[in-house]
């Protein structure tokens, strides 16, 4: 009974699995920076509330992935909003692109055929990350402050609505603020105990730009990043990379919080140390590192720390005679200014003090600093300490409006300062050489006294100091504070010509030649009526024949072998014994080369067996020799050949050789021929393809990434255009190719319908292209393919196209042959080039120097002996 129920259970499971499908997703657009809530509608999804034995099992439940042409990014599933017919997930950061949804249910992927009714890449199953659905942060103000600071964001915020379920934004968009964050903690948009917003407004009723203000929460002291999230399609905000600062901890952040000191007690103590000092303040946070206290530049031993109080014990202070009055202290720089002052020299500013007319002061804790617009014609002095975050070599840059000078000490003492940079006049950027200091070696954590003297004339006054260190963890893509390193690599080399010496000693004469004889036995279990469709091939060296039917006649095998360039210029003679299923071919090599390697073979079916046996071992008459290069042999060379004869044989070895069956000239049978060896001006763009050298089928040139093969406007060498081609006269397209072509040929043509109307059509003819990384040759009957699909007459060719899947190279012949010669086309289907690729490209790079030497002691002996030397100078090139 149990076994009878098993098939029903399996059937039920199969039905359940096949029911898993995706109907559509929504929305189809969203933020580049993520947090867009994506809803997937379908059937058969996992119930996210079901009991799970192993919570760590990643295959359990629903897994959503968004896939582009280059990236695969998870979408975080929201379990509470997911059930059998719906999945909701939140997107992550994804570069602008089209993403297709992929869903795994309990570890099993939903097949593409079950996504959007088989159209899984359609708009209904696609999600697009776009800038116009991405909120932005263009500016953040301020960039530092204590926890609880009210910050203001400027950017493309899209909405001025928060916390409402009904109101539209004033610009008409149905989108609202959901929440905002600073450093992972909420940033409150509402004033406490009220329903009023701090600030949330758009520039106008038609604008997506505006301002948003929120108050930070939490007490963390350190570095923060700001973000906010909108509902609907918009998601999380994307800040400008110019807002990211490189912190002293070598991290990127947009905002820095700091603690506040409100008082110290007692205010005096013993120089011998031991005074218990109480420091009052707020936000004494030790999350990143323990609290440290310095008193007079010396550590004060911390006893206890709370949020608003630090207790420490002072160290002993020696009474110094150097009268030092300046110590590194609180954060920031002290900026002092004097209105309506016009110093002749900037160093005159040092004579100003608190009693000088127009004095005012301010502490600034970030640069660049912009002064109030209404203040003009003033001077300022900004002082403090530079504490490098890491040891290394630094370059310091100075920029201001209008003129300024920067001084730095090699210690914390002001009297050690020297001028390191100056800007004598206004400039908008770091354009002057004087604005840049020399390379300075600075130590981590050591305070260096720094002073900036500045004078403003009119308009807006600014000061800025920039540090450059040639060692960074960041790139220009992450922050504007980083500069990408650029290295120039120059490689030099010397090329030396290869020299080889070929020497023959004691060459015998009058040796009787013996022709090589081999027997090829072919057997197959194919039925008699199917043996004509069962094939094998034979080969010698690097060349092989096309498919040969099992049971082929001796003449067919003989023609196939004699077409191999590795046997030419010699020939073979073939005789046969046997039946259609079993044949013994005797192959006699009509050659004085002597011994031949056994013929190679390839079968195209498991029921075919081939053996090759050497019947008679060939012997060379020793009147000639051959040279081998890259597996290719020269034609026979006389043993006492001259320089020109050896050079000719080697050049012939490397020259381009097309199969004899390929018609390489236009004429009655060939309407259009192109081998890319001459004028390629019509083929030199993305639509047609790009001609490339040193990579041809049987020449030096070919067409890379072919597109448009032929148009009626293409011109002949005479300058006349080819015009329209009647397919009744030239119906066949033949070409050599290599690479990933789609299995179709595009054709634009006209024809006359059965109702006598002339119609122009563009269609695709299905075919099969080889995807192997080697040259292939193909002929296509265009006319027959069109007649099958379009009934009519007078078919006229206008244009031809090819389509690539991957990078493709094509050495292309378009041979429009008459249909009355089908044997010619059949022969062309199995063509291969004569000789491997690199040898043909080197023919013009070969030099030969003869150095014949006669051995006198052997010259008059019965056996003729001669020593000949050829020095072969080969120039090798690299081919792409």
UniProtKB/TrEMBL annotation:
Keywords for the protein's UniProt record, in alphabetical order: Signal
Ranges for domain PA14 come to 328-481
Q: Which domain of life is it from?
A: Eukaryota
Q: Where are the transmembrane segments?
A: none
Say yes or no: keyword Glycoprotein present. Answer: no
Matches recorded under Pfam families: PA14 (PF07691), TIG (PF01833)
Query: Which PANTHER family does this UniProt record tie to the protein?
Result: FIBROCYSTIN-L ISOFORM 2 PRECURSOR-RELATED, POLYCYSTIC KIDNEY AND HEPATIC DISEASE 1 (AUTOSOMAL RECESSIVE)-LIKE 1
Full protein name: PA14 domain-containing protein
Q: Which GO terms describe its biological process?
A: nervous system development
InterPro entries per the record? Fibrocystin, Ig-like_fold, Ig_E-set, IPT_dom, PA14/GLEYA, PA14_dom
Q: Where is the signal peptide?
A: 1-19
């Amino acid at each position: 009974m149990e076994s009878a129920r098993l098939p029903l259970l399996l059937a039920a499971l199969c039905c359940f699995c096949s029911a898993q499908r995706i109907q559509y997703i929504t929305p189809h657009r969203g933020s580049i920076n993520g947090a867009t809530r994506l809803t997937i509608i379908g059937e058969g999804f996992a119930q996210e509330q079901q009991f799970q034995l192993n919570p760590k099992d990643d295959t359990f439940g629903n897994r959503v992935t968004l896939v582009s042409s280059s990236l695969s990014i998870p979408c975080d599933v929201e379990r509470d909003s997911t059930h059998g017919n719906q999945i909701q997930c939140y997107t992550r950061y994804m570069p602008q692109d089209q993403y297709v949804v992929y869903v795994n249910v309990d570890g099993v992927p939903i097949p593409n055929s079950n996504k959007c009714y088989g159209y899984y890449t359609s708009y209904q199953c696609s999600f697009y990350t776009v800038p116009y659905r991405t909120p932005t942060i263009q500016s953040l103000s301020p960039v530092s402050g204590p926890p609880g600071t009210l910050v203001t964001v400027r950017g493309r915020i899209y909405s001025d609505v928060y916390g409402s379920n009904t109101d539209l934004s004033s610009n008409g968009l149905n989108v609202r603020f959901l929440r905002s964050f600073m450093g992972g903690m909420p940033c409150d948009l509402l004033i406490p105990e009220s329903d009023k917003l701090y600030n949330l407004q758009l520039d106008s009723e038609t604008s997506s730009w505006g301002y948003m203000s929120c108050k930070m929460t939490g007490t963390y002291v350190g570095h923060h990043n700001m973000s906010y999230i909108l509902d609907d399609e918009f998601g999380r905000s994307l800040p400008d990379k110019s807002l990211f600062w490189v912190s002293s901890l070598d991290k990127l952040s947009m905002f820095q919080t700091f603690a506040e000191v409100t008082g110290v007690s007692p205010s005096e103590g013993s120089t011998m140390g031991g005074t218990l000092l109480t420091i009052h303040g707020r936000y004494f946070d030790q999350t990143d590192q323990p609290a440290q206290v310095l008193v007079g530049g010396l550590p004060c031993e911390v006893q206890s720390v709370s949020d608003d109080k630090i207790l420490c014990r002072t160290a002993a202070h020696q009474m110094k005679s150097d009268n030092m009055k300046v110590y590194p202290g609180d954060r920031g720089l002290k900026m002092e200014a004097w209105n309506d002052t016009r110093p002749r020299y900037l160093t005159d500013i040092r004579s100003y003090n608190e009693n000088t007319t127009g004095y005012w002061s301010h502490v600034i804790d970030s640069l660049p600093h912009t002064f109030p617009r209404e203040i003009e014609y003033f001077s300022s002095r900004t002082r403090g300490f530079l504490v490098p975050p890491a040891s290394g070599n630094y370059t310091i840059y100075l920029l201001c409006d209008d003129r300024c000078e920067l001084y730095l000490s090699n210690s914390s003492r002001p009297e050690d300062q020297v001028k390191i940079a100056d800007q004598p006049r206004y400039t908008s950027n770091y354009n002057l050489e004087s604005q840049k200091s020399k390379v300075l070696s600075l130590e981590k954590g050591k305070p260096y006294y720094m002073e900036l003297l500045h004078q403003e004339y009119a308009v807006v006054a600014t000061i800025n100091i920039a540090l450059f260190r040639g060692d960074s963890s960041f790139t220009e893509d992450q922050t504007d504070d980083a500069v990408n390193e650029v290295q120039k690599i120059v490689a030099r080399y010397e090329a030396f010509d290869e020299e080889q010496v070929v020497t023959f000693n004691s060459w015998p004469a009058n040796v009787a030649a013996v022709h090589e004889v081999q027997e090829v036995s072919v057997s197959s279990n194919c039925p008699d009526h199917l043996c004509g469709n069962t094939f094998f091939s034979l080969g010698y060296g690097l060349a092989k024949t096309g498919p040969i039917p099992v049971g082929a006649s001796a003449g067919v095998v003989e023609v196939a072998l004699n077409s191999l360039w590795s046997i030419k210029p010699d020939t073979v003679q073939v005789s046969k014994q046997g039946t259609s299923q079993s044949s013994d071919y005797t192959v006699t090599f009509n050659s004085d080369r002597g011994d031949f390697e056994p013929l190679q073979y390839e079968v195209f079916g498991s029921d075919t067996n081939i053996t090759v046996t050497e019947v008679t071992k060939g012997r060379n008459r020793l009147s000639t020799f051959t040279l081998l290069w890259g597996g290719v042999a020269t034609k026979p060379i006389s043993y006492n050949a001259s320089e020109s004869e050896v050079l000719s044989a080697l050049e012939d070895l490397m020259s381009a050789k097309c199969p004899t069956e390929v018609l390489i000239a236009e004429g009655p049978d060939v309407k259009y021929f192109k081998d890319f060896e001459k004028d390629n001006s019509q083929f030199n763009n993305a639509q047609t393809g790009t001609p490339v050298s040193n990579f041809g089928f049987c020449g030096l040139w070919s067409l890379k990434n072919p597109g448009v093969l032929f148009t009626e406007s293409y011109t002949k060498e005479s300058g006349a255009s080819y015009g329209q081609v009647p397919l009744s006269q030239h119906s066949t397209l033949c070409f050599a190719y290599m690479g990933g072509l789609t299995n179709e040929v595009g054709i634009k043509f006209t024809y006359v319908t059965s109702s006598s109307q002339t119609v122009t059509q563009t269609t695709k003819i299905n075919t099969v292209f080889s995807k192997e990384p080697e040259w292939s040759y193909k002929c296509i009957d265009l006319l027959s393919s069109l007649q099958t699909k379009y009934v009519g007459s007078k078919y006229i060719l206008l244009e031809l196209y090819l389509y690539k899947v991957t990078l493709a190279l094509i050495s292309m012949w378009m041979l429009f042959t008459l249909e009355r010669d089908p044997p010619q086309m059949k022969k062309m289907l199995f063509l291969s080039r004569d000789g491997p690729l690199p040898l043909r490209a080197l023919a013009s790079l070969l030099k030969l120097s003869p150095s014949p030497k006669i051995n006198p002691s052997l010259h008059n002996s019965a056996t003729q002996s001669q020593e000949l030397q050829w020095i072969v100078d080969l120039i090798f090139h690299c081919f792409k």
